[in-house]
Design a protein that fits this description.
Length: 195
């Protein structure tokens, strides 16, 4: 069996590379971000040829993760993906988990502007959240329109840094969707606008 090119490049076995990831917290967090992007892309790919004509992946700081071109729509739908917060972080009532948390802010602020860590409401159109840290199923995601997310008090054009994510078992997910196809279909019915 042929070795992976990274194993060849670094002179390590695949197991040693995986152990390096597993043993280093910050590296594992970065890999989990990449896993969320891969899982989001799987949801997107499944819709190409039906709900989506084509898509592009963006791996650049300050840019959303994906652009989706829908039939009969000139402007792409911009998608950002995130992971839910770690397993011990959640919204609770009486000790029971009632919602997950997702962090919707950038890693760093611009010098002299602490609000620059906060996303503007028009930086992306859809947020996809990978639930793997909570459910153990890294394929499981929820999707929401950015316009449905909570705003930072006193800054109506900025998103709150922590958003509530419903439990996937909740009977009512609104305004969230368990599938990207449902969110896109709902947007087409309402002319792309829905709060």
């Amino acid at each position: 069996m042929k070795r992976h090119r990274l194993a060849e490049k670094y002179g390590l076995t695949e197991a040693e590379i995986l152990d390096a990831i597993d043993g280093r917290f910050r590296l594992r967090v970065a890999v989990e971000g990449a896993i969320a992007e891969i899982q989001t892309e799987r949801h997107i790919k499944a819709l190409v040829g039906t709900a989506i004509d084509r898509y592009e992946i963006h791996d650049e700081d300050g840019k959303h993760d994906f652009s989706l071109w829908l039939p009969r729509r000139r402007q792409p739908v911009r998608v950002e993906c995130k992971n839910v917060r770690n397993s011990n972080e959640a919204f609770r009532t009486g000790g029971q988990i009632v919602a997950y948390k997702v962090e919707t802010q950038k890693t760093r602020a611009s010098q002299g502007d602490p609000t620059s860590r906060l996303y503007d409401i028009d930086q992306f159109d859809v947020l996809g959240v990978c639930l793997g840290k909570k459910t153990g199923d890294w394929r499981q995601m929820l999707f929401v329109r950015t316009l449905s997310l909570q705003r930072q008090p006193g800054l109506p054009r900025k998103l709150k840094p922590i958003q509530r994510v419903p439990l996937p078992t909740d009977s009512e997910l609104d305004p969230w969707f368990s599938s990207l196809a449902q969110l896109l279909a709902d947007g087409q019915k309402s002319g792309g606008r829905r709060n």
